[in-house]
Structures are given as structure tokens and as C-alpha cells.
Q: What sequence folds into this?
């Protein structure tokens, strides 16, 4: 069966510091991968998605970037964090397929920028 | 562009009572619709999904949802709520780019269950 991991689970960082969040998927090959952010009291916003190694699509302009160095690894980064980057970051995967793809979510990373 | 509206931010029901969570969507083509549940501090778990066919879909944990195209709705229901159902519920509509399916979520409904 497929499993999705995210780490760290919780992170507290000062403003202006760098960020690296990691997501890995086990039990599947060539998945689509997604990064979402959930701000306090709000829904989920799609930040990035990837359909293959080195292929990144950005959904909203922001202070963050994403990379996919390996087939089942998806990394969310920032060079300098802003207060507004605080939130709950969720990674998801889906089968690399058609319109009826279902996304499965990881446990999330709680980021607090002080 | 697609959008999802969940008009109820917070709902409180008694254990054993029935539940209906509302979801309205806007999408120009055939919608692919999902309900997810999130417990505090956790990721999202898929409850059920609708792609085509029977408009009443069954999911996990005794939940069901009915797709009504004429009303652009996909409401989630459960006949008898358990205390463990207290969580936040998200409705989402999927749009395919040709290579990936992108989800647009509603802002969620927080369910509180009283004993």
C-alpha cells in the first residue's frame, strides 16, 4: 500500500530564515505530487504541483519554491521566511492518470514564523 | 475558474442526530467532487468522491453524499452522528489540466458533537 510522509511535523522559525519541508511517497511510482497551505481558519490553497522529476507548476506567486529531485520526493523551500508564511502545509499524491485522479494527503507540517 | 462554497462555518449536533453539511460548487464542465475530513492537527482523509453514475455515493464511516446537478450541490449526510465524527469537513471540486488534477477546496465546516 501507499504511504506518504512529511517532516518535520512541527517547525518554528524566525522571520528571514530559510525553510525546507520534505514530502516522500512510498509504494507507488511516478506519482503526481502537490503542496497545499492551510492558513488558520481557512481552506486549503494549492501552491505547487509536479507531474514528474524536475517538473514544477506554481499556482500562486509567493515567497516559496518547490523542487522534485527524485520521483517520490517533493520539497518546499524558502530563502527568507515571512510572517505570512505561517500555516499548515500539506503534501498530497495521486496516481499519474486522468481526470478522476484522487489525491491522498500526508499528515502535514505546522510552520510558525515568529 | 471553479469554486466551492460551504455556507456553514460551524455546526453543532447532538450525538445520534442526523447530519447534513452543505456544499455548492461552480464549474463549467463535468465536476469531480470530493469530501475530506480533517481531525485537529492532522492531514485530510478522503470520505467519498463522485465522478459519474449514481448520484448518491457511499463513503467511509457511514457517510453519504448526493450530487444534484440542477442545484450545483454535493451535500454530505450521515443518519446518526457519533462523537468521534467531530472534525472539520472540506468539500472540493477537481479540475484536470491534462496531466494533473487540481483540487479547489471550500473553506470547511467545523462539526461539533454534543453528548
A:
Amino acid at each position: 500500500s501507499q504511504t506518504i510522509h512529511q517532516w518535520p511535523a512541527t517547525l518554528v522559525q524566525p522571520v528571514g530564515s530559510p525553510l525546507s519541508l520534505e514530502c516522500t511517497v512510498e509504494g507507488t511510482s511516478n506519482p503526481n505530487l502537490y503542496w497545499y497551505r492551510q492558513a488558520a481558519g481557512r481552506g486549503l490553497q494549492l501552491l505547487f504541483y509536479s507531474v514528474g522529476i524536475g517538473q514544477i507548476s506554481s499556482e500562486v506567486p509567493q515567497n516559496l519554491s518547490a523542487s522534485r529531485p527524485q520521483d517520490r520526493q517533493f520539497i518546499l523551500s524558502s530563502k527568507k521566511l515571512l510572517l505570512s508564511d505561517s500555516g499548515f502545509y500539506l503534501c498530497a499524491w495521486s496516481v499519474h492518470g486522468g481526470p478522476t485522479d484522487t489525491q491522498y494527503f500526508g499528515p502535514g507540517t505546522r510552520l510558525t514564523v515568529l | 475558474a471553479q469554486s466551492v462554497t460551504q455556507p456553514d462555518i460551524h455546526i453543532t449536533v447532538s450525538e445520534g442526530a442526523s447530519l447534513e453539511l452543505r456544499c455548492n460548487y461552480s464549474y463549467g464542465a463535468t465536476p469531480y467532487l470530493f469530501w475530506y475530513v480533517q481531525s485537529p492537527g492532522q492531514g485530510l482523509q478522503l470520505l467519498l468522491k463522485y465522478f459519474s453514475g449514481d448520484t448518491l455515493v457511499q463513503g467511509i464511516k457511514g457517510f453519504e453524499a448526493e450530487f444534484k446537478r440542477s442545484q450545483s450541490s454535493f451535500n454530505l449526510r450521515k443518519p446518526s452522528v457519533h462523537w468521534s465524527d467531530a472534525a472539520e469537513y472540506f468539500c472540493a471540486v477537481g479540475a484536470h489540466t491534462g496531466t494533473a488534477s487540481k483540487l479547489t477546496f471550500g473553506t470547511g465546516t467545523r462539526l461539533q458533537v454534543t453528548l
In short: Chain A is about 0% helix and 55% strand.
